[in-house]
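PROTEIN DESIGN WORKSHEET
SECTION A - STRUCTURE
LENGTH: 226
TOKENS:
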């Protein structure tokens, strides 16, 4: 049986990742702040309480799961930093918000990767996935949303570094953009449903080969410009 660990596993894209992998008979290590949405799901789903910005808890969970081989680690938890008062617009930037968004979107995935690299390296599939965004692309930038964009650009750089540093262990590191999706974060105007995005991402992850290490892809497997 293959094993996946998912952060932010009880809402939005993370919840659908949990459902999709459970339906494929994977063992799911579902990490979330609240278990409510996971309670009635069918399959081999183990709930682990985790706020990804509690780095002591991240390390403690890695120790608790020290016997596990984790085939796929999905660093999914994230926040937009949007709060309706232009806090990401030039002239109205909020440093406290910057720190919060960076803590969740940038620092936490790296701490997860550091803490669980050995669990992934000892598995069969060895895949380390960051759920990033096209908004982190410098080549594709059209301005605005400073904080969220920069948090995902930095996340992309982390995954590019991990791809090099973990290559000798055979770990495949990929930054994956889900598309613009109808979730609490994406909003109802988004063109993609969760049911279109997540199964497509699972298929992309399934097909990853060692030669894909260090790529920046979107949900349908298309290459994105850094
Ligand atoms: N939706 C889109 O269009 C879109 C586009 C590009 C990239 N993304 C990325 O996709 C990922 C998932 O987004 P989504 O659309 O599913 O957003 P969402 O519906 O707002 O869900 C966000 C998830 O992140 C979790 N989370 C936030 N802060 C956390 C923390 N400190 N510790 C643990 N979990 C935390 C939330 O858990 P709680 O329920 O506990 O808050 C929730 O499960 C994010 O990384 C996002 O940046 C989304």
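SECTION B - SEQUENCE
RESIDUE ASSIGNMENT:
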């Amino acid at each position: 049986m293959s094993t996946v660990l998912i952060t932010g596993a009880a809402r939005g894209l993370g919840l659908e990742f949990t459902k999709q992998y459970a339906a494929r008979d994977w063992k799911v290590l579902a990490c979330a702040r609240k278990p409510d949405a996971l309670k009635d799901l069918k399959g081999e789903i183990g709930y682990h309480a985790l706020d990804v910005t509690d780095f002591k808890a991240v390390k403690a969970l890695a120790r608790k799961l020290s016997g596990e081989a984790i085939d796929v680690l999905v660093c999914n938890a994230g926040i937009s930093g949007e709060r309706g008062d232009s806090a990401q617009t030039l002239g109205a930037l909020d440093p406290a918000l910057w720190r919060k968004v960076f803590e969740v979107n940038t620092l936490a995935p790296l701490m997860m990767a550091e803490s669980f690299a050995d669990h992934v390296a000892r598995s069969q599939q060895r895949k380390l996935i960051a759920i990033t965004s096209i908004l982190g692309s410098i080549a594709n930038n059209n301005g605005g949303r400073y904080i969220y964009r920069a948090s995902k650009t930095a996340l992309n750089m982390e995954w590019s570094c991990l791809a090099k540093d973990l290559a000798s262990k055979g770990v495949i590191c990929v930054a994956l953009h889900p598309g613009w999706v109808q979730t609490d974060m994406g909003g109802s105007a988004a063109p993609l449903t969760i049911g279109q995005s997540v199964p497509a991402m699972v298929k992309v992850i399934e097909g990853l080969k060692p030669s894909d290490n260090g790529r920046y892809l979107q949900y349908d497997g298309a290459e994105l410009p850094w």
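SECTION C - NOTES
Strands lie at 3-7, 27-32, 45-49, 72-75, 127-131, 172-177, 215-218.
The CA atoms of residues 14 and 221 lie 19 Å apart.
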